[in-house]
Amino acid sequence: MILRYDVIVIGGGHAGCEAAAAAANMGAKTCLVTMDMNKIAQMSCNPAVGGIAKGQIVREIDALGGQMGIVTDATAIQFRMLNRSKGPAMWSPRAQCDREKFIWQWREILDRTDNLDIWQDQANELLVENKQAIGVKTIWGVTLLAKCTVITAGTFLNGLMHVGKTQVPGGRMAEPAVLNFTESITRHGIRSERMKTGTPVRIDRRSVDFSKMEIQNGEHDHHQFSYISKKQTLRQLPCWTCNTNKEAHQTLMSAIADSPLYNGQIQSTGPRYCPSVETKLMTFPDKEQHPLFLEPEGENTNEMYLNGFSSSMPMEVQLAALRKIPAFENIRIYRPGYAIEYDYFDPTQLKHTLESKLIEGLFFAGQVNGTTGYEEAGGQGLVAGANAAIKCGGGQPLVLGRDEAYIGVLVDDLVTKGVDEPYRMFTSRAEYRILLRQDDCDARLTEKAYKAGIATEERYKLWKEKEQNIDRIINFCATTSVKPKDINGALEALGTTPLRGTTKLTDLIARPQLDINTLSEIVPELKEVLESLPNRKEEIIEAAEIKIKYRGYIERERVIADKMHRLEDIKIKGRFNYNEMQQLSTEARQKLSAINPDTLAQAGRIPGVSPSDINVLLVLLGR
Fold first, then answer.
1. What proportions of the chain, in percent to the nearest 5, are helix, strand and coil?
2. Among 42, 326, 506, 534, which residue's CB has the most CB atoms within a 10 Å radius?
3. List of the chain residues with pLDDT < 70
């Protein structure tokens, strides 16, 4: 049987779902190929979305017209805004979700999406003609033909799971590995390597002594991921914290020779920033305890996730170590933690659209690019799916700058620097994080997404209404003054310096002791403006206040970003034969030849290319 489409997406994880939805919503006839329709967007590890920098990515996906934020809001069982003690550039939303409801919320969205078919099958062979991807063959003998193919296979390509000395082929627990697909891709010159990740034990909540743990409640204010979501509807649940101890450490270390990570069984690289518990003990031998977070898997299940205890140790060792911790003395588990090795493809072989440089019409997104995390996968999926649709129907490619989005930083890091360990996003990876706040994602991206055809008319209108109201507050505060006699008594009561003369509201809001809501209680005209705002007024007020309070920092960083754009505008792709340029260092010649950067700015971000190498290129361009 032969089926024909514009875009085929291989893999129904977070990258695949966003890719398929984006391509279909842009008008491309799309097919999502997944091994199990009942596990679409499965949260293989913790059923949580967001976190440091990751929460910003989810809000960017939402601003671009993606679905992850909407699904998260609908299935959240705990929400928190992380890093509140720091400036707004560091605020990061995070939600614990109901695992099963998350899957079915995604399934409902995909089922309602026009131009999208779901095909339950497994890709077995990539079809290529004249260096052009034309589709795939499946294990059931079906040929799917398309103008563009997006690979989002997660950890399934030659996946191998480890628990102690036991090794089982699989893409995740109880699911088979994909054994031939990698080889059908690499035979066309695309390089693949191996990586490793892991996941913790799952615990029966009925066996936990919560009296020996510290409760960690969620927050119940206006924050959520999507501006168009309705209020949370699920029952909100707490998380719990405790620590490992010396006895647990001794139990683990006594069996370290049986750890696949340390006996040579696992050769591939794991995530530095989400290490296994045995890696923590080996790396920090002097630490007597490490924090653990026990988190619910759903609204109505006893299954709980033990964050901080990823492990591939033998299951009896995992269980024995846990029982040394007071809260888990009588612990029962559903399944042990395990490690998994899998194939990924060198992302420096990709363009910024996530299309292969070697095979036209072939796109890669998610963990197959060497990343880790649902959010990083979803952001890539949206970029790849949108660009696949654009390639089919024409238009300007969707490429996000490093000053436009964390997704832009992510993609640029992948295609420019490559990876030598699973890539995870942090705020520190972005040069312009004051410009990339969680509160202004729609301001940065929604208009661009609307013009590209990803964001809907409804989404765009909601943003324009929000923008108008933010501007209305800012303009009112910038043009409204207050006199000392009318406000000094209230200012002194609030612990801030009284005025000496007539002052604009913007200058008062800039004070750390004051905010817009507080001032509205002593300036009746401001209160009238706030009361006239539509729904989601808290989010509108917060966005306006951040722009007022941090205006100087934002403007300064914008100037720096605009200066860097000058180098981004200098195109160098195809203008040099780097191998023949003896003026460059040997490493620079090798790296520039391999990556063939589009712009001078991208060349400057390649590891091994020095400022003096960039100066050489500038001189030669001048000639």
1. 40, 20, 40
2. 42
3. 623
